[in-house]
């Protein structure tokens, strides 16, 4: 059965639609333009844009300097003159370069000038657009004196002197090549000195340098002096290296005539100290015979006369011994004991200072080795 017509004309239906507005429809902004407006810093779209970008920045392409680039200094809000249909590739936004990224394309002028010390202080910051160029530090030249394994080089003393005047972490970072060269110089010197020590004392084994050398870093946890570094290089030899309960030989290299060679038992635990006191109580003649030895008296006791009482007094007056001695008699011994001066000690050490001339140069190794040899009877007691 045929459907009846509704009686409405199709022409009338189309004419019932709202008429076109008088104002033209604004041109739709492409997705590409909108992406560019949102991105504050993008890469050039073509080689021509790259050339225009490089020419406007006035950057020398042969320059190797890198700068921090300020992303806010660029104006990317302009729209293209002609509108075109956006393609699928155009819809994808270009990868943005992070703010503050190092780039070689544009070298902005220096907005601020900072001193090296100011920039490297804790919490120091660089403003955007600031150019910082730091020369790579180099080690001090060896000059007319070549480095040698069996000597302490003058540069090592110069570094330690500078470190004493600038005992600071930032300073040491800037002078790391000097530190490395000095540490290597002292390490090779210790290798040669270790050979002489093991020849003198057969109880000391051949150990690697890492087992005898002390770190340059100070333990400041319980110290009022918060300077981070020691101002000397040092090492110790014993049956177990620099650590352990045994008496040891000690060598310290320090400028300003502060070098030191010594040996003995320093700050022993209660049990070894108790055994040593008992040995002195039973056989005091053993330590007295060593203290009156000619080499010991000449090198460490100020050349005192060959007399037991004078030698013992010179030994107990050694700074490391006297400063830690008991004020009264130790437990188990009477105050009027005939050897009470020795029994009151808590350190049993010998030592002497050396001038820079005695340490630096060709004669340093022999001088230190002779002092170590003279202490062998005392250390191996």
Automatic annotation (TrEMBL):
Which residue windows does the record flag with biased composition (Acidic residues)? 78-88
Position of the signal peptide: none
From start to end residue, where is composition biased (Basic and acidic residues)? Answer: 1-11, 52-61
Q: Which Pfam families match?
A: DUF2461 (PF09365)
Give the compositionally biased regions (Basic residues). Answer: 94-104
Q: Which domain of life is it from?
A: Eukaryota
Identify the stretch(es) annotated as Disordered. Answer: 1-117
Q: Where are the transmembrane segments?
A: none
Q: Which InterPro entries does its entry note?
A: CHP02453 (IPR012808)
Q: What is the protein name given in its UniProt record? A: Uncharacterized protein
**Organism expressing this protein natively:** Lophiostoma macrostomum CBS 122681
């Amino acid at each position: 059965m045929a459907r009846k017509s509704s009686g409405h004309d199709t022409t009338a239906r189309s004419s019932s639609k709202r008429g076109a507005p008088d104002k033209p429809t604004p041109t739709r902004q492409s997705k590409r333009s909108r992406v560019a407006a949102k991105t504050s810093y993008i890469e050039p779209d073509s080689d021509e844009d790259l050339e225009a970008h490089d020419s406007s920045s006035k950057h020398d392409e042969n320059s190797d300097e890198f700068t921090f680039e300020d992303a806010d200094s660029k104006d990317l809000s302009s729209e293209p003159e002609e509108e075109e249909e956006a393609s699928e590739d155009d819809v994808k936004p270009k990868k943005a370069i992070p703010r503050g990224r190092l780039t070689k394309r544009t070298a902005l002028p220096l907005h601020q000038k900072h001193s090296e010390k100011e920039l490297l202080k804790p919490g120091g910051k660089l403003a955007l657009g600031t150019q910082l160029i730091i020369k790579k530090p180099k080690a001090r030249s060896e000059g007319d004196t070549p480095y040698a394994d069996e000597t302490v080089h003058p540069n090592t003393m110069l570094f330690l002197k500078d470190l004493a005047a600038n005992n600071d972490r930032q300073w040491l970072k800037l002078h790391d090549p000097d530190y490395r060269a000095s540490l290597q110089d002292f390490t090779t010197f210790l290798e040669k000195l270790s050979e002489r020590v093991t020849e003198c004392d057969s109880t000391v084994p051949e150990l690697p340098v890492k087992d005898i050398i002390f770190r340059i870093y100070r333990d400041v946890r319980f110290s009022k002096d918060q300077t981070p570094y020691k101002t000397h290089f040092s090492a110790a030899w014993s049956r177990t290296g620099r650590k352990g309960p045994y008496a040891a030989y000690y060598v310290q290299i320090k400028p300003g005539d502060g070098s030191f060679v010594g040996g003995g038992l320093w700050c022993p635990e209660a049990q070894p100290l108790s055994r040593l006191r008992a040995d002195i109580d039973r056989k005091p003649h053993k330590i007295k015979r060593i203290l009156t030895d000619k080499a010991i008296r000449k090198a460490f006791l100020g050349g005192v006369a060959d007399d037991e009482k004078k030698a013992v007094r010179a030994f107990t007056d050694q700074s490391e011994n006297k400063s830690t001695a008991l004020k009264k008699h130790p437990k188990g011994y009477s105050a009027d004991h005939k050897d009470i001066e020795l029994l009151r000690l808590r350190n049993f050490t010998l030592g002497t200072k050396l001038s820079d001339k005695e340490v630096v140069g060709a004669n340093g190794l022999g001088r230190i080795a002779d002092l170590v040899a003279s202490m062998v009877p005392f250390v191996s007691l």
